[in-house]
């Protein structure tokens, strides 16, 4: 009986508009490299904008799947993607084309929805690690944003000085 209820819940989640939207987001962001293209916007704006697409995965994990460990793992992937994308001198932009955070998030969601014991065990085991990494990633992202803004200001200041000579 319990297995029948799980299968019905799985079918309901797979048929939901949010699940289909997540599949589309994953396809656009990772398969068609929209994440990397958006990441090219200056001052980290593109990376922050791309991270907003992860809100759909987090909402689904919290509201539909109701799993805190899954939510933490998704947030961890998304923050790591932002931090990597903020690496200066276009290194982060190149990494954005290869780091598939949306695909990773979708695989985690699928694993939970389909009852993949390996995915569930892995996410549950890493829940505390994910929480600690989230705090670390937020600190790193803030530091990198300060660095990017400072570096950009320093470059513009020197360009202005160069032209005012």
From TrEMBL:
Keywords: Membrane, Transmembrane, Transmembrane helix
InterPro entries: DUF4112
Record flagged with keyword Oxidoreductase: no
Keyword Transmembrane: yes
Pfam families, alphabetized: DUF4112 (PF13430)
Positions of transmembrane segments: 37-62, 131-156
Name assigned to this protein: DUF4112 domain-containing protein
Organism, scientific name: Prevotella histicola F0411
């Amino acid at each position: 009986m319990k297995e029948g209820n799980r299968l019905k819940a799985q079918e309901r989640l797979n048929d939901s508009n949010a699940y289909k939207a997540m599949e589309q987001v994953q396809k656009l962001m990772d398969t068609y490299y929209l994440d990397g293209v958006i990441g090219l916007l200056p001052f980290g704006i593109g990376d922050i904008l791309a991270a907003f697409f992860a809100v759909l995965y987090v909402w689904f994990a919290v509201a539909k799947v109701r799993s805190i460990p899954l939510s933490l793992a998704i947030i961890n992937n998304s923050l790591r993607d932002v931090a990597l994308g903020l690496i200066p001198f276009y290194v982060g932009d190149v990494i954005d084309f290869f780091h598939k955070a949306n695909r990773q998030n979708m695989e985690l969601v699928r694993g939970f929805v389909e009852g993949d014991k390996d995915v569930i065990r892995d996410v549950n085991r890493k829940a505390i690690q994910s929480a600690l990494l989230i705090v670390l990633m937020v600190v790193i992202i803030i530091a990198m944003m300060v660095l990017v803004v400072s570096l950009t200001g320093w470059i513009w200041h020197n360009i202005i000085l160069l032209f005012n000579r």
